[in-house]
Amino acid sequence: MRINRALxxxxxxxxxxxxAATATACGGGESKSALDNAKDGKLTIGIKFDQPGLxxxxxxxxxxxxxVEIGKLVAEKLGVKADGITxxxxxxxxRETLIENGQVDYIVATYSxxxxxxxxxxxxxxxxxxxxxxxxxxxxxxxxxxxxxxxxKVCSVKGSTPAQNIEKNFKDxxxxxxxxxxxxxxxLRAGSWDAVTxxxxxxxxxxxQSTGAFKVVGKPFTTENYGIGLKKGDKELRDKVNDAIEAxxxxxxxxxxxxxxxxxxxYQAPEPPKVNRY
Length: 278
Prior knowledge:
By secondary structure, the protein is of the alpha/beta class. The longest helix is centred in the N-terminal third of the chain and has 26 residues, at 2-27. The chain has helices spanning 2-27, 34-39, 66-77, 95-100, 115-118, 161-169, 181-190, 200-209, 235-250, 253-259, and strands at 43-47, 50-51, 55-57, 63-64, 85-89, 106-107, 121-130, 132-137, 153-157, 174-178, 195-199, 214-217, 224-231. Helix 3 (66-77) packs across helix 9 and helix 3 (66-77) packs antiparallel against helix 10 (253-259). It has 10 helices and 13 strands. The chain has a 5-stranded mixed β-sheet with strand order 10-9-11-8-12, sandwiched between helices.
């Protein structure tokens, strides 16, 4: 009897310990806001890992690109130094989920602002205005712009605005989607499809990385406002991020960041955008 009673007491103690641990996980550090994390000197920022000139994880484990620099500059305005940042890969199709689940504090990853996304997340910015374009092999003479896409195989990334635009407005085109643009690029190089489509600034980075292999053709045929993705309803964070973007544009940090990343490819910095407080 004493053994049974001891066992019951032991099981009860374990149950209470598990319950307490669960309550701590649900109500403790897991629910900290981005600004709470910033006060602790730490932020997790989502970027792309495979976009030269914008968001790239280098072979030595470091990170480079315009989005990386914007992420750092905004973090600095929030009181977080570069060594307090954790970079997290944020593929196009996963960005809303990463924000909603609290896996990132904010995302700077060629993230076009649109109404559908604003149903799930908030945006700061825009911090850059791009336009959709086309990348083809250097010897391709058939594709000169969107009007010559009929019957062509075009690759883009799942969940991206460019992929949705091709699917909706270019129905005679054979759309192929992949998880990353680097996979699209491999297929283009191998001849699996005829073109890769995304924003002009992204394609310029890929063309510069593979000198002589690819070229950007035609003029941009959309307008894409790049925003910083934030947790829905966090107005204080959104206001502070917008303040930060305006500040780095005003003090010249924005242009310096562009010239030291995308600008190296010869791509000229446009006029910085006006922040629209969504």
